[in-house]
Amino acid sequence: MTHSENTPMPPAASDDPRESLLKAIALAGRTVAAVRPEQWDGPTPCPEFTVRRLAAHLVAVLRRIALAGRGGDVTTLPTVVEGLADTAWQEAWDAGVREVEEAWADPAVLGRTLILPFGSIPGAAAAAVWTSEFTVHTWDVATATGQLPDWDPRLVAISDAAMRRGLPAGPRDGAPFGAAVDVDPDAPAIDRLVAWCGRNP
User: Fold this and answer.
1) CATH 1.20.120.450 matches 17-196
2) Are strands 113-116 and 119-122 parallel, antiparallel or unpaired?
3) In whole angstroms, what is the distance from residue 168 CA to residue 177 CA?
4) In the predicted model, what is the mean pLDDT of the chain?
5) What is the per-residue pLDDT across 108-159, written as a single tens digit (0 to 9) for each?
6) CA distances for 153 relative to 31, 81, 183, 190, angstroms
7) How many CA atoms lie within 13 A of 25 on its CB side?
8) Residue of 37, 57, 116, 144 with fewest CB within 10 Å of its CB?
9) Which candidate, 8, 14, 17, places its Cα nearest to that of 123?
């Protein structure tokens, strides 16, 4: 995000949910960009998605985040971009990132109420939710394609806190997550996060 000399700078990255969200998006982008052509049709730990379809879902999420930042209702946009060719993915991704940066450039978005599929929440909370979505789906893509991302401990912590606030420990009827999986309390933070989200690390 760019700021003129007369525009107040946002809080330090550690305090600005937008910066954490953009970092999570960037890691997801690098991970999908590293997918090899023969891996696109492979399964992922997210049962309803192949690698290709999960990549198309993440592009759709970018567009939803941008729409929310502009004050729109994200439920008016699809959850997957259909017909996105493998060769067109990077261009669509880069365009989506630019839309997010522009729509969230004003710090005031963090205090506005945004409309998400599960309800209306402040922009700062929505940014944390989307940070967790990108982090978990980055793990899905990485696991499906044999990658080992360099996890940012702060992003994982933000994601874990958001998911534990938003997902019950018990039955999750109607939520797009399976039951939490038991892992060792001393397991890596990313493993604890994805296990809470129903993955088996």
Assistant:
1) yes
2) antiparallel
3) 10
4) 90
5) 999 999 988 878 899 999 999 999 999 999 999 999 999 999 999 999 999 9
6) 17, 30, 18, 8
7) 28
8) 37
9) 17
